[in-house]
Design a protein that fits this description.
7 helices; DNA Polymerase III, Chain A, domain 2; 44% strand; single chain; alpha+beta; 9-stranded antiparallel β-sheet
Length: 365
């Protein structure tokens, strides 16, 4: 194999593919990136659960393939000077040359690299911006506890032109609904996709559309020359729709930016795992924290309250995760009592809110 490729293009593609490389591979070849040169250059990584493939333009003098230690190639490619990079296979080495810099990397047997999963059939497509926004809104509510795999995923429910993403860690539920372009009429699919994979896909989007594929226990995502597949989790999930559709006797509308800024300031004096206290009265909400060994903080923000005055407390980061998911100027906080959860949602001009976030309240001392 002999190729020449732009340094920035190579470094970007290598870094993107290398993100799925396992830190402790069960077999050595899984630590490698497979480079295949044909009409274009493709770079692939696979850990038996998640695969990633990036395709970029390159000048291909000799076609072929080579398996190179992925993390090392990522470190080298981003440190090279701003010149074109040449990669040539010479016996057991892949020689990487850029300007006067040259590296001879020991390769691994290409034939030992496992075949990547076949991309399942496409079920629809959505704009990259909408996809990334939806993932960023719901992913914070997913759990990091691998002992409960169901809670580490994002539920994706497809019903024709409507898609809902939802996640929960038992202490909060986040859901976002959006419209998309289904691949055909009557598409109806439900699946649990690992949240970490959706987050990585969303981070790497560079515009355009995301094509979503599902089938045979695998989900696939393609956008602008990059594709990812991942094994789906068990489909078991809570009935989140019922939990998000309760009636609420108290409603407070507050401007998101000043409210978030005030919570962050007051939280500076909140000790670990202590509550942020919100006191809603007519025309305002008072944010309070602290009172222990560190100190205390308090700030008032304007709000429009419908219903009785109420004081309620939340874990500060859980509260902020919900508020920062709001895309409208105003956030609506639906309340019932200090001991019940609160529902945070955007305030749309018309129709139902696209984003909803249910968060448990904390007992106040």
């Amino acid at each position: 194999m002999k190729i020449r490729v732009n340094r920035d293009v190579l470094a970007d593609a290598v870094a993107w593919a290398a993100r799925v490389l396992p830190s402790r591979p069960v077999v050595p070849v899984l630590s490698g990136l497979l480079l295949e040169a044909g009409d274009k250059l493709s770079l692939s990584a696979f850990d038996y659960d998640v695969s990633a493939r990036a395709t970029v333009d390159a000048d291909v003098a000799e076609e072929g393939g080579v398996l190179i230690p992925g993390r090392l190639l990522a470190e080298i490619s981003r440190s090279l000077p701003a010149e074109d990079v040449e990669i040539v296979t010479e016996g057991p080495e892949a020689v990487v040359t850029c300007g006067s810099a040259e590296f001879g990397l020991i390769t691994m047997p290409v034939e030992d690299f496992p075949a990547l999963p076949t991309m399942p059939p496409a079920i629809g497509a959505v704009g990259g911006g909408v996809f990334a926004s939806a993932v960023s809104q719901v992913a914070p509510a997913s759990s990091r506890d691998d002992t409960l795999p169901m809670l580490t995923g994002i539920r994706v429910d497809v019903d024709g032109e409507s898609v809902t993403m939802a996640a929960t860690d038992r202490y909060r539920i986040a859901a976002r609904e959006f419209t998309w372009r289904p691949a055909g009429p009557g598409v109806a699919v439900s699946a649990m996709v690992p949240a970490r994979v959706l987050v990585e896909v969303a981070k790497s989007l560079r515009g355009g559309e995301v094509s979503v594929a599902m089938g045979d226990g695998v989900a696939g995502f393609e956008s602008v020359g990059r594709s990812t597949t991942v094994r789906l989790l068990d489909e078991q999930f809570i009935d989140y729709r019922t939990r998000l559709s309760s009636d609420w006797s108290i409603r407070a509308d507050v401007r998101v930016t000043p409210f978030v800024d005030a919570i962050k300031r007051v939280a500076l004096v909140a000790e670990r795992n202590t509550a942020i206290r919100l006191s809603f009265t007519q025309g305002q909400v008072r944010i309070q924290a602290g009172g222990g060994d560190i100190g205390r903080g308090s700030e008032v923000v304007e709000c429009e309250l419908r219903g009785d005055d109420i004081q309620i407390a939340f874990q500060s980061q859980f509260l902020l995760d919900g508020l920062t998911g709001i895309e409208s100027e105003l956030a609506r906080i639906n309340l019932e009592s200090p001991s019940r959860p609160a529902l945070i949602q955007d305030v749309p001009g018309d129709g139902q809110p696209a984003f909803r976030y249910l968060v448990m309240s904390l007992r106040q001392s």
